[in-house]
Every structure is written in structure tokens, then in C-alpha cells.
Amino acid sequence: MSGIILLCRAGFESDCAAEIQDKATELGIYGYCQTQPDQAYVTYHCQAEEADHIARKLALKELVFAREMFVLLSAIKLAGVEDRASAVLEALLPHQESFALAGDLRVETPDTNEANQLSKFCRKFSVPLRQTLRKAELLSNKPLAKRPLLHVMFVNSAHALTGYSYSYNQTPHVGGILRLKMPKDGPSRSTLKLDEAFQVFVPEHERDKRIQAGMKAVDLGAAPGGWTYQLVRRDMMVQAVDNGPMADSLMETGQVQHIKEDGFKFRPKRKNINWLVCDMVEKPARVGELMTSWLLEGDCQEAIFNLKLPMRQRYAAVKEYLAQITEQLQTHGTKPFEIQAKHLYHDREEITVHLRWLPKS
Fold first, then answer.
1. Is the pLDDT assigned to residue 210 strictly greater than 90?
2. pTM assigned to the model
3. Can you give the residue ranges of the Ribosomal RNA methyltransferase FtsJ domain (predicted)?
């Protein structure tokens, strides 16, 4: 058994499968996908050396629908097994050459209701499993950030998958899920989308420079203020554009100027906007065109926005949306740019996109 395991939101398995099939083909690898509805992960079957090549060369951040990715080594049947740690060790030993000495261990589950009931067990089980793997010299005595990460994923209590990922191409979050608490004074749950987007798209070592107090921001389609809340929380000065009412708590901060205008028609009077954000329920192509024009006309430096997904063939649609944006920036722009897109944990039937002009090196 060999291949790649990709974790995703339940219900989006076919989109995740279409994406890995497409990306693997670009690498000259021709495997096949296996999945079931609502199981929240996809298995891409290919040769062991091909799976390792994907894990090295296909950047996780370039995948829209995959939250986490690791090379599949083995499947373990655990029904009636009392010593699970020894069973995992036995399954990993024949594959030790694949990862040599692992720097850390992650015991996890797919994001399904059934599997999530095992999360407490996973946390407890990781303790004896670490000890067992260290004694067998499969796992370092202390975490080593530059060594491969071992994965043990419990699909259910009787079935687990093992594998590894590389330190430079993995998510720091178990299952690829960044769990955030809803702020008590947040105007709407949509606020968590922008909070997650800032943390996913802006590397930690760049946040102090790119997300600063006093920066100027525009929120298109702002009411009641879920996304504006995150900008205010980061001490930015915000122009909130929406004909609808804004939360009083935000207006009382003195950081928000409420502009009652159509988000598709508004443009700032001065070209000093650091961040543009937008969560409007509109046709994705129209939103993408609007965001692109803001960058091309110098009305903002960076943009984060949502694109609503169709009911079917979502990956094909996303690929088309991103291609249109990329083509416009390449054709009419004069600077290098960065485009990122992710189906975030707090997204539902949409993806979140980040655009920015890259600074001069």
C-alpha cells in the first residue's frame, strides 16, 4: 500500500480528489483516487517513490481543498487488539527507511462526527505510542523540527493509517484545522473567516510588518461588521462600505467610517489602502474581477476575499476563477504578485483568496 492521504472538509472529497489528480498529473504522476462521501479524506494511490515526490514537491499551501497531506505507509486493523502501540510499531518497522528518524508524532482523525469522538483517545494514546516508537528508535527523544513528522490517523476505533510528511511541507495544526473561539463581542460568525485567513495567508514572521496598527483598510459589503471587527481588533482604520447597518460596538471605537454605498461602485479617495477585504454574496467572477481591478489601479496593496462555490464541479470552477484573476494580473500588472486560495476550516460553501503585490527584493 502506498500513496498520499489528503484531509479535507466532509462533503468536499470529490473536489479534493479532482485537485490532487490534476496536480499529480502536472508532476508527471498518474495514480488514482479512492474516497467515500463524507469521510473527510482522500487516498491518492501511486507508487511509493511517486508519493514521496508529491510530498516533497507539491506545496500544501498550493492546494485549495486539502487541509493536510501525508505519504501513506500502511493500514492497520485494530479490532480486538489490546496493545495498539505495538501494532502501530509493527506496521511502521518495514517502512523505516522511508522516513529514517522522525522528529515528532501526530495522532489524529479525519474531521467527521464519528472520528472526532476519538480525539480524546488520540491525545491519550500519543503518550505510550511515543514511548514505544522512541524505544524502537523510530522517533527522536526530543522534537526535531527539521525531521519528518509521523502521522497515525484513526479513521475509526478499529482502523488506522500511518504515514509521514516533511517538515517544510506540513501544517502546524492537527488535521490542518485552526480552531478559533468566537469573540463575545463579534457581530457575526463570519468574523472567524478573516481571523483564520490572516493567520493562514500571512506567515507569522511577516505579520508585524504587514498587519500593523494604524494601517488603512476597506471592507466591502461590511454589514453588520464581522470582518470589520478583525480589522478594528488589529487597530486599523476602516472604511466599512455597505448600505446596511453596522454594529454599534464597532462604530463606538472611532476606528470605523461607515460609507453607505454599493461595494461595486466605491473607490477610496486616496490610494493609501493597505488592506481590502470583501465577503459579499455575489457571483464569483464578478467579485474576482473587482478585487483584481483594485490591485491593478493601485487602490490597495493586499486583498482577502471570499468566492462562493457552485454546487457541483467546485474544483473546476475554482481553477477557472483563479486562472482569470492570474491572467488579468499578468496581462495588466507591472509587478510580481502572489495569489493564494484555501477552503478554510471556517469556510462553508466558499473559498478564501489572498492577493498582493510582492515587494521589491
1. yes
2. 0.95
3. 188-281
